[in-house]
Amino acid sequence: MVSFKTWKNLWKQRESGNLFTLMFIPRANGAVKKISIPESLARFLCAITAVVFLASLYLIYDYASIKRDKAELLRLRVQTTEQAHQVKELALKVDEFADRMEELRQFDQKIRIFASYQTARDKKMPLGIGGAGTSEVRLRELLDSDQRKLVEEARKGISALSEDAAYREQSFNEILSFLREQKSILAATPSIWPVRGWVTSEFGMRQSPFSAGLEFHNGIDIATRKGREVVSPADGLILEASYSAREGNYIRIDHGHGYSTYYCHLNKIVIKEGTRVKRGDLIGHVGSTGRSTGPHLHYTVLVNNVPVNPRRYLKR
Q1: Is the pLDDT confidence value at 283 over 90?
Q2: What pLDDT does 72 receive?
């Protein structure tokens, strides 16, 4: 409030002649109105007006800032809520992934048992049993958990699952290599009869058909009609396809993994040295060439170059 002394000073200035005159001129014919105010009063009013204007601008800016901050705070709250929900969903996914990894671990263990491929560590690991809660129950538990704790648990869970996944990959690769090796061994095992017929002489010691003494027979003789097809009992490589006075026309096949086979007294050879054959491929025909008493196939199986009884590998 302007004091009496201030108004008195302003009035003195008015009398001294330092005045501002405001003239109001109407459009129609009328008297011109004048208002004279002291210079100091005019300056005072201008200052008051400027202060009020600046204060208004500040209040408007402050109001706009508060409104903007409020909107930003609301946006951050919504974003925080969404992130919290995403973290909880992530934690739930980690749990579900852990369950899947446990199923894979059990599957890995079963494959090793079925394939008879278990290490000492595998035998100590029991097959898992049920006990995990449902996803809905786990989700309710997560919703009641602290977000920071959830993030830490999710981080640890992901790290553990990453290590488990790497181990599981290595384990499956080991099983795959083992099964491939087993497949290769099975393919190399002479497991089918090379020709149809009947065995006239077994593996082992026998009475020699050409003398009165005993001799070691390193294979079996399969009698059948002349010209019957002879097939390879396993996959392999033809090492020899030749003739000798004792064996007549003969073939030697290397099957790998220490297995090799001989076929003697053939009437005809239909395969060349260096050729790769599959189980069941035609290699020749039964005959009676070389030292023989009649049409038959002398069939020998060797393991690491040692003759073994072919019946060990033949299906009954």
Answers
A1: yes
A2: 82
